[in-house]
Amino acid sequence: MLEIEPPRDKRRAAKHQIDQMVLHPLDVWVREPSVLTDVERLRAILRSGADAGGATVVGEEFFVFPNRAVTGVLLLAQSHLSIHTWPELALANVDLLSYGCVRGDEVLRVICNQLDVERSEQIRIPRTIG
Fold first, then answer.
1. What number of CA atoms fall less than 13 Å from residue 16's CA on the CB side?
2. Burial classification of residue 126, based on how many CB atoms lie within 10 Å of its CB (0-12 exposed, 13-18 middle, 19 or more buried)
3. Measured between alpha carbons, how far is residue 109 from residues 5, 17, 18, 24, 37 in Å?
4. Nearest 5°: phi and psi at 6?
5. Is pLDDT at 43 greater than 50 in this prediction?
6. What CA–CA distance (Å, rounded) separates 4 from 130?
7. 16 and 77 Cβ atoms separated by less than 8 Å
8. Adjacent-strand bridge partners of 3
9. 3-state DSSP call for residue 56?
């Protein structure tokens, strides 16, 4: 079992044991496409999902494209959570790669609820570690 200790700073200090790593790709179609161009709302939604699933956010980056589509990434102590929006299609692609104690299903449930999802497709892909 691989152990990773996050850098010492003002973040929550914890040792993370990696016994499994899982990729959670999620495609969602939303009722109101305007949410997909609201970078501050998307940032809050991803953070809310990460918090609900027990993830530790250690950084973030968001970018708004000329058509107002958004790509955003939260860097997690347990890997990452990202969103890529396609407002013209009312579509968002969300990816959570996590290990350890993160409750991936809870992260994505909260994100779906806050995006007001009409339809979604989700799978779970175990990733190799070690």
1. 21
2. exposed
3. 28, 24, 23, 12, 20
4. -65, 160
5. yes
6. 13
7. yes
8. 17
9. coil
Cβ atoms within 10 A of the Cβ of 2, count?
A: 11
Q: Which amino acid is at 26?
A: L
Distance CA 96, CA 42 (A): 15
**Cα 117 to Cα 96: distance, rounded to the nearest angstrom:** 17
Whether 107 and 122 have beta carbons less than 8 Å apart is answered as no
Domains defined along the chain, listed by start: 19-127 (3.60.90.10)
Nearest Cα neighbor of 46 from 125, 23, 66, 38 is 38
Give the distance between the most distant pair of CA atoms in the chain.
45
Residue 18, pLDDT > 90, answer: no
127, 92, 103: which is closest to 50 by C-alpha?
103
pLDDT in tens, 88-117: 999 999 999 998 889 999 999 999 999 999
Q: Which two tokens stand for residue 52?
A: 């609900």
Q: How far apart are CA 95 and CA 116, in angstroms?
A: 17
pTM for this entry = 0.85
